[in-house]
Amino acid sequence: MNQLNRIRIVLCQTSHPGNIGSTARAMKTMGLSELYLIRPRKFPDVDANAMSAGATDILEAAHLCDTLEQALTGCSLVIGMTARRRELSHQAASPRTTAALIMASEQDVALVFGNETSGLSNAELILCQHLAHIPANPDYSSLNLASAVQIMAYELRMALLGEPLPADNPNPYKRIKPATHDEIEGFYGHLEQTLIELEFLNPEQPKRLMSRLRRLYTRAALQQEEVNILRGILKATQEK
Known about the structure:
Blueprint: E1 7-12, H1 17-30, E2 34-38, H2 46-51, H3 56-60, E3 63-65, H4 68-71, E4 77-81, E5 92-93, H5 95-105, E6 109-113, H6 122-125, E7 130-132, H7 145-160, H8 181-197, H9 209-220, H10 224-239
Parallel strand pairs: 1-2, 1-6, 2-3, 4-6, 4-7, 5-7
């Protein structure tokens, strides 16, 4: 199986259909095919077809989703693209390191891009286990959505062809059975409910506790077995 077939390009609430078409073109030139669209403003659309420059097969096979959670179902690794430093979020990796991380995961992966104007919202970012950042010119960092997809698609192809991961960036996802997005989100929901029952977390004034805990567990790159152990501890805590 082509390793690129397990990589999803996810576009959140895209405003202009031409950007969807250009994204399909960028994907096809590098061998990617899995396109997920979350509530695009206009799609299908003739502008998308025109800008795809012949990559209409990717547009026709695109998955339309109502929520980001729906688009991430079954993924073991979710990476959000960000143009700026986010408070209470993990450090963003370079495109090259990110591509090597993705290619070594051996599971379904989602690469998530935000709206052209506002990027990914905080609610969308919190569903991403890792962040990636394209280091553009700080004096003019405005990067077109499809151009960002093209850069990441190129780096993915280079990683597929054997570009080595930098020695100072060991890959935590080259392991057996990493936890899926669904399993990790189930754990976070279970953790939050348990903390509420323990009266450690006040749902009326949660502050940033869950955001900080998400950041902590993201660094651990949880495996399925580890999630099961943690949820077993939570269940025993609730029973006591």
